[in-house]
Amino acid sequence: MLAKVIKLHNARGGRVSAHHGVQYIFREGGEEHALEAFALEDARIEIDRRHQRIEYSDQAGRVRMTDSGPRVDVHIADADTIQAGLQLAAQKFGGEVYITGDAAFREQAARQAARLGVGVKDADLQQVVEQERAQIAVERTPSRPLRPDRQRDPPLR
């Protein structure tokens, strides 16, 4: 999971990158490590002026994402880091992003973007975004019908 860098792109043409309390497991060098929840407000931030980038690390010192100006790279593709990358991208680039990476990552990021209200510019991900928005609408709809004694009155003419 850590072996590749996955990117989100901003809608202006440059590259950019995007459930709390859950632990994730990732493999590095043949060892398994638990990941604590990650959020931008909890990140350790290191500015590298020489390479013109900002690194966002978790409390264990693992670099979760890197902001290099027109691009934010997600290095650990768990839900928390993707959400943080989407939030950062939305703040920096007017709320709309292009998403690159493998198919599973792109779908996961598009679904999280829909839940966060971040626009996704990729035409091939619009169906995923619409499905997620429909799911959100279903989740917000009451699951029980109104009782007969609480039925709405017919509209007046």
Major pleated sheet: 7 strands, mixed
Percentage of residues in strands: 25-35%
Terminal CA distance: 61 Å
Q: Unreliable stretches, pLDDT < 50, 5 or more residues?
A: 1-6, 9-29
What class, by secondary structure content? alpha+beta
State mean pLDDT (0 to 100 scale): 77
Q: What order do the strands of the largest sheet run in, or round the barrel if closed?
A: 5-6-7-8-1-9-10
| Total DSSP E strands | 10
Give Rg in angstroms: 19 Å
As a percent range, the share of helical residues equals: 25-40%
Q: Nutshell version of this structure?
A:
This protein has 157 residues and is of the alpha+beta class. It has helices at 79-92, 103-116, 126-140; strands at 6-10, 15-16, 24-28, 31-35, 44-48, 53-57, 63-67, 72-74, 96-99, 119-120. Helix content is 27%, strand content 26%.
Description:
- The protein is α+β, with helices and mostly antiparallel strands and 157 residues long.
- The chain has helices spanning 79-92, 103-116, 126-140; strands at residues 6-10, 15-16, 24-28, 31-35, 44-48, 53-57, 63-67, 72-74, 96-99, 119-120.
- A seven-stranded mixed sheet has the order 5-6-7-8-1-9-10, covered by helices on one side.
- A hairpin with a 2-residue loop joins strand 3 and strand 4.
- Helix 1 packs across helix 2 (103-116) and helix 2 (103-116) packs across helix 3.
- The radius of gyration is 19 Å and the shape is elongated.
- The relative contact order is 0.18.
Task: Using brief descriptors, characterize the structure shown.
157 residues; alpha+beta; two-stranded antiparallel ribbon; seven-stranded mixed β-sheet; 10 strands
